[in-house]
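In this supplementary section we document a worked example of the pipeline. Step one takes a protein sequence of length 228 as its only input; no multiple sequence alignment statistics are reported here. Step two produces a three-dimensional model, which step three serialises into structure tokens for compact storage. The input and output of this example are shown verbatim.
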Amino acid sequence: MSDPVFLITGASSGIGAATAREASAAGYRLALAARSADRLQELADELGGEERALALECDVTEWSDQQAMVQTTLDRFGRLDVAFANAGFGASRGFLEESPEQWRSMVLTNVYGAALTIRATLEALKHSRGHLLLTGSVAGRRSLEGSLYSATKWAVTGMGESARQELNGTGVRVTLIEPGKVDTPFFEDRPTDALAPEDVARAVMFAVSQPAHVDVNELLIRPTAQEN
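The serialised model returned by step three reads:
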């Protein structure tokens, strides 16, 4: 099969799952990775089963999991055209809030995990002259009071530009997706004045669908009601 292949980490819910549905509708085969194996398999079944969508249980903070994720994708589909480093989660604001253990897990997932996804997918993307995307945030463009989460997204902002510079001349495009407030399980109290995950997914597909000579490097997307 020649249909292109789209890999997504953090694919079991929210922006990841919405992007999977948009990419499937656009004709992509899917490699869907997350720690939530049951929800992931349900999504893969919805989007065509083993012929069209792989469910890959993966902890992005484990290098061996990321290597296996990419190798299984290549073994099954023979190529990798788009990699979306989307896995991540947040924390309450305040440097006396949360536990050090929760902080450690968040920093490893949001920063180290994204870097490992770049490392794991780089050679396959160079081969296909493909597309690398990372989920940043408005919080990675302006500091938020007491927010270590914001600091992790500043790191992703820098990582996206660093990857773009390294990949310049290879044909691989790099896009940083920077949503504002999104109605996802990220929030315990679900917001009403927010983007839907599908809104962000459409932005992802806009970047991916550009001609090969067009590299949309950053997409900053806020709900109209968001002040900052």
